[in-house]
Amino acid sequence: MTHTALPVATVVFGPEAAVATGHALVLAPVTPSWDEGAFFAPVIEVLAGAGLRVTVADTLSLWDETVDSMAVFTARWRELLPGFGPVDLLCGNALGGAVAQALLPEAGPATAALLVSGPTRTDALLEARLGEIADLAASGRPGEALALLNRRVLPSGSASERDAGPTPDADEAAGRRLAAGMRLLRGIDLSPAVLGHPGPLLQLVGERSQLVTRRHTAAAPHHEVHVVPGTGMRPHFEQAAHVSALIRAFLREKGLQ
After folding, report:
1. How far is it, in rounded angstroms, from Cα 24 to Cα 85?
2. Would you say 223 and 243 are in contact if contact means Cβ atoms under 8 Å apart?
């Protein structure tokens, strides 16, 4: 595991560039602090196992108080993208998935995309649920915000959702990240970037997700959206074997293994 010198928190997994079969760039979801790729561990294992060099980036590293929209935020990522070098597979989870979709026009026509619970567009219900988390975080209650987020990422109606544990610890910095990340997703519609992408794309969403669902995605005829049975926002953990098999098949089909 290595780190890059880019002005964003990153960690790199997999073989050295000289022997890798390709390069995957993974953009992180909203997390209370940078977890160095733990959020995507099962997928990283699959990608690295297929011979890809995997760079995982903390998406919110490029956020500050002057960023007030997804357009401004993705403009920053657009400027940074060339610094990662050639990207064969652009990946993103949740907020990172949204940013990855916004970057598709800059990624190149042959670049493959792998998205997990990455919204292409929002609607009133999704924005209300994200806004509730953001408002708690912004009002000095980051622990409550994180507890609500932890419930919302679970499958709807699950026992663990009904029997939530104690409010987790979260400091002011975590609250700023939570509020910023949730609010960046307000009013987005990245459909033109997705529908216009000529490369392959696989989007995975949970059948019982309380947040990002099939209706929040877009896909061209040559793309694939797969709804993972029984899962919430983290199908790659909840149905790891099933999701890993889908990703391996996608990599083989697209010549990335």
Report:
1. 10
2. no
